Amino acid sequence: MAGSAALDVSRNGLVVRGGSRFLATGTDCSDDDNFFTYDCSKAEKKAQEDKGEEGQTLYKGSDNILASTFSRSGNYFALTDDNKRLILFSTKPWKCLSIRTVVRRCTALTFTATDEKILVADKSGDVYSFSVLAPFQGGKLELGHLSMLLDVAMSPDDRYILTADRDEKIRVSLFAAPHNIESFCLGHTEFVSRIFVVPNHPDLLLSTSGDCTLRLWEYKIGKELQCCHLNKLRNPETTQCEKIFAVSRITYCCRENYIAILCDCIPVIYIFQLDDTKKQLIYKQQLTFNYRVWDIAFEETQGLWILQECREMPVLLYHLENGQWQPVSKNEVLKKISNNLHENWTMVEGGSPGMDDSFSSLYKTTFDNMTNYLKKKEERVQQQLEKKKRRKNP
Question: What was the pLDDT predicted at 356?
Fold first, then answer.
């Protein structure tokens, strides 16, 4: 969801971003009303612009935020923007620690479990690591794919690095020696949009794809445990075109192993529960909305946060009640965040255009050249027959 409005949540706070700006606040009722805001368009730029072979200026990025994430501890926050910058923040208190340059525009990033490194995946298929403890140190190339990377994840013990690409593959590599490939998770028939290692069941991996499936894996051996067809959960009368969609977010709640899946282009959230003994996913609930849902994120103490395209109610909060996720009507933190986003609506709305096309360009395209070829061949045969007739009957 590069450049679109998005949501990141951790134990230390909540971030809403749109366009080139983001707004951060705490999720605890004891927090004061202070908000931290940052605008990438006002951040430090590169000293010299890149030049082409004939000296012309190459495309200059827009400053829009492409990807962002919290560290596992919540003590750090990082983002990458369209100007090829990696910006690192501390969250206690909020402060910009460094601005570094990346080689290519990025598609995803994550922290190691120890908060020592940031891993950045880019459009050319490479993953670079950047130090958190040495915030001005340059990046190191860790591994590469032959196609665009769409997501990157780390195992909870930092032993494995997992990468998902446009060519339907999930690769599992040893982080200490990324050239050693442990396994491949193969089965998706379209690009792999999101991957997520289950934190309290570190041998399990969740993945989603443009083939409308959610899959569960034992990723260390590349074994598929379950495949859920999300398009079969929708209305049976839905047209074939409406049944083709990708998943833009996987978020997980360790409390009772709940999984929320946000679908691209349609205002629907699917709720699953992981049965850790049987290693199976159980479909529990479907949440439907009147407005476009931009992003979702679980926070263990509060519940499921939802960012939607509605100025009057930009943020929703759902709690678990009697086995069902229900909206919360009265919550001081929710009220504080919603009021602030209402006042800063141009920031949130500025990141929304083009979201519907975020995955559409990644689908395979097929060309039917045979029909045209056969048609032209038939025309040539007819022309040759007519020439023979003229020779026989001048």
Answer: 42
Q: Are the C-beta atoms of residues 51 and 95 closer than 8 Å to each other? A: no
Q: What angle do CA 284, 288, 292 make, to 5 degrees?
A: 135
Whole-prediction pTM value?
A: 0.86
What are the pLDDT digits (tens) for 172-218?
Answer: 999 999 999 999 999 999 999 999 999 999 999 999 999 999 999 99
Tokens of 175: 């982080």
Per-residue DSSP letters for 10-46? ETTEEEEEETTEEEEE--STTS-S--EEEEGGGSPPP
Burial of 236 (0-12, 13-18, 19+ CB in 10 A): exposed
**CB 294: neighbour CB atoms within 10 A?**
25
Measure Cα distances from 108 to 122, 194, 195, 263 in Å.
7, 10, 11, 18
For range 280-309, the mean pLDDT: 94
Return the percent helix, strand and coil in the chain, to nearest 5.
15, 45, 40
Question: For residue 129, how far is the Cα from the chain centroid?
Answer: 19
- 129-156 confidence digits (pLDDT tens): 999 999 999 999 999 999 999 999 999 9
Residue 43 is encoded by which pair of tokens?
Answer: 């951040």
